[in-house]
């Protein structure tokens, strides 16, 4: 497989495709939070720039040549994929909350409250990323691992190290993954061996990292730097205000942090910042809460926090696997977020969660929504599998403010997509597809029981990026 992008003379080069792509068969995507379109006999066309140039529905196979010729193409000049029954295209998945350095600790240290888990499991591990060779090896495996599972866009926290985080950004580009990448800011409430030496250093390493990404990917075609205060506990007021200043200077930069994740974390935040009643006021005060914010967890929400995030149009990264397995059982009010039309997507929070699979997150989001239904006496309905699919695709794109570019198959968007196979010798252990199954039933079987084996090919900007 040729590289999907290279860094040549210090800048990103994304080659054009050598031919347009055409997919004929079933195409499934979300038109909105409440509408999933299942188009059978569809013809989806992608130009050499990796953009969707047309999407025809109810096409007979003998009409393909004519529709291609309308683009000036023919079956001779395009790469045509015929999707037989049991195979279909869906948009790529978004992982809106992911700690790249935790790739090599995922699943370990269960059952501890957040601060113990950070101090005993996570910080000693993340400290290893001071070594660029370790970072290069681990991040290559991490990015391959997420691409393999269909994550075409990831919001990554790096470690606190500038050098390792540059390596992560470069690997995303070289492997062709769309990503937000952030140097993690943390200058207190962490051991001496793993914290920024001072607020000044925390901010200057961040600025240097942003400058580096601007150099290697000036238009943020694949990688965008994201401001990443780990959480208020680990950042003093100088770090938060320094990051708020960068956010104000450059309105293209997104921001990510952890928000109302556990009672322990919220209590410590209050002790460290007694002048603020809640985390909304705190982050807003420092200029870190706005439509560019991606807030992980958002579990313990009173009406004030809820309405501030709604009013400020913040994005929410729902992490149902980590919320329910890392020391506490947190049930985020996702139905309420959706009811209010807020931006919600899914995050693996890998390794805060034990799974690196967005498909597991979809299913755990469903489980957690059942718990919420129970605790609200039925007022908050469970999520349907269609809604969990929305969260993993268009919902995630909205959280990242990328829904004008990706998230579904609207003509003009970039082609970030997964080719799904539920039949054939590599179909793994997905619920067996039967002759009598409708396309909707086959799709449900994939969402509820599929895994990476069913993700045959992964495309970002039209480029095939899955390393088998
Ligand atoms: N809060 C601060 N750091 C972390 C982290 O690495 N994972 C999770 N889940 N919560 C955090
Ligand atoms: Fe996290």
Automatic annotation (TrEMBL):
GO molecular function: guanine deaminase activity; zinc ion binding
Pathway(s) per entry: Purine metabolism; guanine degradation; xanthine from guanine: step 1/1
Keyword Zinc: yes
Gene3D superfamilies named in the record: Metal-dependent hydrolases, Urease, subunit C, domain 1
Enzyme Commission number: 3.5.4.3
Gene Ontology CC: cytosol
Residue intervals of the Amidohydrolase-related domain: 88-465
Keywords of this entry: Hydrolase, Metal-binding, Zinc
Catalysed reactions, as listed in the record: guanine + H2O + H(+) = xanthine + NH4(+)
Protein's job: Catalyzes the hydrolytic deamination of guanine, producing xanthine and ammonia.
The protein's name in its UniProt record: Guanine deaminase
Species annotation: Exophiala spinifera
Lineage of origin: Eukaryota, Fungi, Dikarya, Ascomycota, Pezizomycotina
């Amino acid at each position: 497989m040729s590289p999907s992008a290279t860094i040549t003379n210090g800048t990103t080069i994304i080659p054009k495709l050598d031919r347009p792509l055409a997919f004929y068969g079933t195409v499934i995507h979300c038109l909105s939070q409440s509408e999933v379109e299942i188009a059978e006999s569809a013809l989806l066309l992608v130009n050499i720039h990796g953009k969707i140039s047309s999407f025809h529905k109810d096409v007979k196979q003998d009409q393909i040549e004519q529709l291609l010729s309308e683009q000036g193409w023919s079956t001779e000049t395009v790469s045509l994929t015929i999707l037989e029954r049991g195979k279909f295209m869906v948009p790529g998945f978004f992982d809106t909350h992911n700690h790249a350095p935790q790739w090599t600790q995922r699943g370990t240290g269960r059952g501890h409250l957040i601060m113990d888990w950070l101090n005993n499991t996570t910080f000693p591990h993340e400290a290893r990323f001071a070594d660029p060779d370790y970072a290069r090896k681990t991040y290559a495996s991490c990015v391959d691992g997420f691409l393999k599972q269909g994550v075409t866009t990831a919001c990554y926290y790096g470690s606190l190290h500038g050098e390792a985080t540059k390596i992560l950004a470069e690997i995303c580009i070289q492997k062709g993954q769309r990503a937000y990448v952030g140097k993690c800011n943390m200058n207190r409430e962490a051991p001496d061996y793993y914290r920024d030496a001072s607020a000044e250093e925390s901010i200057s390493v961040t600025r240097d990292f942003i400058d580096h990404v601007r150099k290697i990917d000036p238009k943020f075609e694949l990688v965008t730097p994201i401001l990443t205060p780990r959480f208020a506990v680990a950042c003093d007021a100088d770090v938060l205000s320094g990051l708020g200043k960068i956010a104000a200077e450059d309105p293209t930069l997104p921001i990510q942090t952890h928000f109302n994740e556990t009672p322990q974390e919220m209590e410590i935040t209050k002790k460290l910042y007694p002048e603020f009643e809640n985390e909304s006021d705190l982050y807003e005060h420092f200029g870190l809460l706005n439509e560019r914010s991606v807030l992980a967890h958002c579990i313990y929400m009173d009406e004030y926090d809820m309405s501030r995030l709604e009013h400020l149009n913040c994005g929410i990264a729902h992490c149902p696997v980590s919320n329910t397995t890392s020391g506490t059982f947190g049930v985020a009010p996702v139905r309420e977020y959706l009811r209010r039309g807020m931006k919600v997507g899914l995050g693996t929070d890998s390794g805060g969660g034990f799974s690196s699979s967005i498909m597991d997150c979809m299913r755990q989001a469903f489980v957690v929504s059942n718990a919420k239904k129970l605790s609200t006496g039925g007022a908050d309905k469970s999520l349907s599998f269609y809604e969990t699919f929305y969260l993993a695709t268009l919902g995630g794109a909205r959280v990242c403010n990328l829904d004008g570019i990706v998230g579904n198959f609207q003509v003009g968007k970039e082609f970030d997509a997964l080719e799904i196979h539920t039949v054939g010798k590599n179909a793994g252990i997905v619920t067996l597809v039967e002759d009598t199954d409708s396309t909707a039933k086959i799709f449900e079987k994939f969402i509820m029981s599929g895994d990476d084996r069913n993700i045959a090919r992964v495309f970002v900007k039209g480029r095939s990026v899955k390393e088998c």
